[in-house]
Amino acid sequence: MAADVSPSSSPEPAGKPRSELATRALSAIVLIAVALATAWEGGWTFALFWLAAGIAMMAEWTNMTRVEPRRPVQIVLGLGLAALTVVFLRDMSLATGVAVTVVTAALGALLARGTEGRLWAVSGFTYGAVIVLVPPLVRAHPFLGLVGLLWMFAVVWATDIVAYFTGRRFGGPKLWPRVSPKKTWSGFAGGLLAGTLGGFLVAWGAQRLGWIQPFSLRNTIILSAIASVASQLGDLGESALKRHCDVKDSSHLIPGHGGVMDRLDGFWAVALILGIVLLIVRLAT
Questions:
Q1: Which 3-state string (H, E, C) describes the chain?
Q2: Which of 34, 147, 164, 253 is the most buried (most CB within 10 A)?
Q3: Tens digits of per-residue pLDDT, 153-209?
Q4: How many CA atoms lie within 13 A of 54 on its CB side?
């Protein structure tokens, strides 16, 4: 899974049991291995992996926001996400995908109680749909493919790891204390530099191996920097949602890490940007 691989999004409390840290590290290793293995395989395996992640994120979203009736809404939205995966795998038309999205969102809104509940249900489906569709679309894209996916992983992972350790080492002014009290501007800057470098190195290495055509150094650096910033904003956005809902973790699904949303918040933001770009290109052709 394209997950956070840093020990945490905030410094560990003193005296943290070593067994818990070991569990966290082992979970991260397993998630990374599965993410890379399914990325290499592609096809149904990869699409189903991200379908599972998207359904988990939708369920965590609707649990945190207390959408009611919980289970019926989650079942409808989950079936809609599964239908989007089928649309992708069967290479159906964009219109079919849009129809599935509209119908699912409408049914979720009709089932949910109250105006706020309806908004949370629709936004939860949208949140999950980005993760269900964009990684497989990138993997299947003739000009992005595996390299595009590895670029996403590299930017997000490098940003998260270096932001964590840079923030711990240098401290300084807080980035957004009301939302995430332990994130600092030094961590943001360190993450930005690392994410930009990580994205560039993947593209550079792929070109050296002959996997992609020659690219513009400037454009690669710019795109990697934008993605790194988006990744950190995605992390902050999820922190704001958790603070609004008064929860610490989105769930306890991943041992030592919390929920799937906790691990994919930054990746989701990068996927959203790429998804918008791919949609614009599709509509323009």
A1: CCCCCCCCCCCCCCCCCHHHHHHHHHHHHHHHHHHHHHHHHCHHHHHHHHHHHHHHHHHHHHHHCCCCCHHHHHHHHHHHHHHHHHHHHCCCCHHHHHHHHHHHHHHHHHHCCHHHHHHHHHHHHHHHHHHHHHHHHHHHCCCCHHHHHHHHHHHHHHHHHHHHHHHHHHCCCEEECCCEEEEEHHHHHHHHHHHHHHHHHHHHHHHHCCCCCCCCHHHHHHHHHHHHHHHHHHHHHHHHHHHHHCCCCCCCCECCCECHHHHHHHHHHHHHHHHHHHHHHHHHC
A2: 164
A3: 999 999 999 998 999 899 899 988 888 888 999 999 999 999 999 999 999 999 989
A4: 30
Query: What pTM, to 2 d.p., does this model score?
Result: 0.89
C-alpha dist (Å) from residue 69 to 75, 114, 172: 11, 11, 45
Rounded distance between C-alpha atoms, residue 120 and residue 37, angstroms: 33
Q: What is the rounded distance in angstroms from the CA atom of residue 243 to the CA atom of residue 226?
A: 26
> What are 254's strand-pairing partners?
258
The burial of 50, by beta-carbon neighbours within 10 Å (0-12 exposed, 13-18 middle, 19 or more buried), is given as buried
Task: Output the pLDDT for position 18.
Answer: 65
Q: How far is CA 174 from CA 9, 27, 30, 137, in A?
A: 14, 29, 32, 37
> So where are the chain's domains?
1-12+144-285, 42-140
